[in-house]
Amino acid sequence: MFDALDALKGIEDEEARAREISKFLRAYGPKIKELSDIRRAYVMAQRGQKISVRALAAKLAVSASTIQDIERGYSGSGKTRPRKAKDEDDGGSDRG
User: Fold this and answer.
1) Number of C-alpha atoms within 13 angstroms, CB side, residue 58?
2) Claim: this prediction has a pTM higher than 0.85
3) pLDDT tens digits for the chain (96 residues)?
C-alpha cells in the first residue's frame, strides 16, 4: 500500500496527481475511518478495564498522547482539534 501512495505522490502532472489522489481518497477514506473506529473500540474497551494509558500505548506502539486522542475521538492533525480555553485567552496580545 505504501508503494501505491508513493506512486501517487510521484505523478508529475499536478492535475493528474490531484485527480488520482481524489480517486484514492474516495475509495479508501471510508475504509480508513472504519479501521480507526475498530481501533478506538479496542482502546475504549481496554480503558474500561482500567488499563493505563501508558500500558495501552506500549501495547499498541504509540504515544500516550495518541491513546488520549483516540479516547477523545480526535483524528488527524492538531490543526483540526479544538483549542483549549487557556490557549485562546493567552493570545499574547499584551506582549510587546
Assistant:
1) 4
2) no
3) 889 899 999 999 999 999 999 999 999 989 989 999 999 999 999 999 999 999 999 999 999 999 999 999 987 666 666 666 665 545 554 544
